[in-house]
Specification:
Elements (H helix, E strand, L loop, with lengths): L7 E15 L14 E14 L2 E14 L2 E17 L3 H30 L12 H15 L8
Antiparallel strand pairs: 1-4, 2-3, 3-4
Helix pairs in contact: 1-2
Length: about 150
């Protein structure tokens, strides 16, 4: 009996794990005519949930402010369950940090836009994100923080 050693990268399930909308200054904020300043924060995280099965969550937080007043705050935790098998160990982290968020981002972008629209504002369309660049930057920051190895002979 031959064992299948083909690499597997498959989507098992995509879902919204968390969704929050806040409009703390309603209804008065709807009378404002100025354009709010937008701030977007992205976070990704992954964890093993079984043999070769991982949950990855992309959290997108959009905060709109006028001066010091919060117009709205929307947070979406877009998640997916991914099957990653027969892949070399050193390639799993890049898959979880780059490939999975690339798959999740369009769904998160749609959820943010829909939530903002339902809150009574013009929908927000998030710009594309370079998850590979974010991952490489994080690796560089981690290597800069790591103390240099010293070999004593």
């Amino acid at each position: 009996m031959e064992q299948n050693t083909q690499p597997v990268f498959a989507i098992e399930k995509l879902y919204v794990k968390d969704l929050s909308v806040e409009v703390p200054n309603a209804p008065e904020i709807f009378l404002e005519r100025d354009q709010p300043q937008m701030e977007v924060q992205l976070n990704t995280g992954g964890r093993g949930i079984g043999e070769g099965v991982y949950e990855v969550v992309l959290t997108v937080t959009v905060t709109a402010k006028l001066a010091e007043k919060t117009v709205f705050l929307v947070e979406v935790g877009q998640a997916g369950i991914f099957r990653i098998q027969n892949v070399p160990e050193e390639q799993i982290e890049p898959l979880i940090a780059v490939a999975c968020p690339n798959i999740l981002f369009p769904y998160a972008r749609e959820a943010v836009s829909d939530a903002v629209g339902r809150a009574g504002f013009q929908p927000v369309v998030l710009q594309p994100v370079n998850f590979e660049g974010m991952y490489m930057q994080r690796l560089q920051e981690q290597s800069a923080e790591a103390p240099a190895e010293v070999t004593i002979q």
